[in-house]
Amino acid sequence: MKKLEKLLKGHKYICFMDFEGTQISHEMIALGATMCTLDRNGNIKKEKEPFKIYVKPKNKVGNVVSKLTGITDELLAKEAVSFNKAMLDFKKYCGMAFKKCSFLTFGNHDMKILGESVAHNLTYPKEVVSQIQKNYVDYQAIIAEFIRDENYNPLSLVHYCELFNIKEAGVAHDPSVDAVNLAHIYQAFLDNKDLVLEEYLKLLTRINNLPEPVKVAIKALASGNDFKAEEFKQTAKDYIG
Hints:
Layout: H1 2-8, E1 13-21, E2 28-38, E3 44-47, E4 51-54, H2 63-69, H3 73-79, H4 83-94, E5 101-105, H5 109-119, H6 126-134, E6 136-138, H7 139-143, H8 157-163, H9 175-191, H10 193-204, H11 212-222, H12 229-240
Parallel strand pairs: 1-5, 5-6
Antiparallel strand pairs: 1-2, 2-3, 2-4
């Protein structure tokens, strides 16, 4: 996909990432990632063992987040490290590829979590954070351009897995599991061009802000029917009344 190729800036590595954050302050409480090496066509040819680390926030986790993720204040008190150390450990996980890769997340909320963690910490490795922010790509925005539900809403990570018949890597809302699932969705999107085309044609018929004659034409064409210039002209004429 040309649009994705441009966003990846020619990088040969993608680090698929997922952050979990506190309920109110949105500070990072967990980071999950999986580093992947790409071939010349952008396909994943090698996937590294996933990385996961718990991060100490300045504020409480919150009951909603704890129920969703299983991450509690007690767990973090025992197992979490500082935001500074988490970022340094993550860079170490990425290795030599750190400055040669794109960082993909599912949605832009992860970057909000990163920003809030920066705001709550006086000490952190600025070069690590800036590198992530500079080469960050929101993959949800890319895939949602072609695949949405019947109400024109983007699918969840779980529902994209279902669509592509991907077996989930584990329990949802575990950041390392979500990162691996995102990597598999990325590859499935490239591997299943016919399915993507089918879903995209459906999506085109659901766009609400198109003029009525254009909607009629798109629905006919998406259904495999011919729609000639004369028919389009007549449709517009009928709509005008």
